[in-house]
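Hi P.,

Sorry for the delay on this. The queue was packed all week, but I finally got your sequence through. Input first:
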Amino acid sequence: MDYKQDPITTIHDLGCPIELLEERLMQIRDRSAGAVLIPALFSELERPALSQIRDQLQHCPFVSSVVVCLYADTFEEYARAVKFFAPLPQTTVVIWENGDRIRGILEYLKERGLDLVRHKGKGKAVWLGLGVASLLADAIALHDADIVTYDRSYPLKLLYPLMEQEFGISFNKAYYARIGSHTRQLNGRVCRLFVTPLLMALAELFGDRHYLRYLNAFRYPLSGEFALTNDLALNTRIPGDWGLEIGMLAEVYRNISPKRIAQVDLGIFDHKHQSVGNTCDEGLQKMCRDILSSILRTLTETESVVVTADVIQALRVKFRRKAQDYTRQYFVDAAFNNLRYDRHQEEVMAEIFEQAIVDAGGRYLRDPAGTQIPDWTRALAVIPDLREQIQVAALADAREALDRSFCGSLTIAS
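Then the structure:
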């Protein structure tokens, strides 16, 4: 049985019944409210994963509000999303992030000197959602819309350590075993074959750096499931690229003490998989590039590390050996557990990721500045009621969806 603790608090699943955790959380619900934030594309409404997420959330009385930040091409798509989430018993806000009302608010913010219009993708959705969710709850759990193994234990495990105030936890990140739901195999290629050997190689190059120890403490640093307090949400810059998960860890590292950080075991977990991509501007290759850029930037900011072309070449060589060693270890683990494992393809994948080091390193040397959305405290300095404006705009969009009769009979939270 695994009792191992890390530089951050590790919350193991040692068999505590979910019903008992839920009972504890219900007892403290009156003094600490929890929200769930889901950034989503409209296309995900047509996949079974999001339907399962919605149906499970209906049985989560410890969640007081649900915020969905949706990218939809048309108002009809947005209206269908409002109808889709209508069965939820919680206060539910569906933000149409690229709709006219939200875009108009952001355009006004741009006129006041803070340009958020140029940001796109998941980072922008997370930023908008955190603004509204921080109005509604003390603790906010965030997860993606493509989790095929989702059940009510996920938000419960994410929120409980924050809502139990005697724990003193402000940020809680999920870790889990990425095992394929249909084909029993090891998933999580970027974490296994890129991030893990990369961190080991960086530690050998730069020595015992506190930030690298911190990242290594996370058992799944790329998990997109985490929870944070509303005050931390307002003081966190959101990365605007595919390095969002690693970039969030960097922001947490800057903002709070390690004793206020935890990770929790969600068990067996699987979700939609990204393609590898044909170039370093696509798919998992782009993800690797953005991850490395984020790590190098934070090492320079916090550890005064100097990155040169020679360092990038040395990193590439060390990464190759570390990745090869890990493929052997994964082979043993997979074979013992009767999991499908193609060792040759794993090494091919590691070689593809190695090329991302060259591309990311060159780009970083040319332009070390990252893409980050300013934190909410800066935005509120420009427009103090910005969060309320976004919430009102989302509710107006939802009511208009009713008025146009796209959705039939719905109940919209006020």
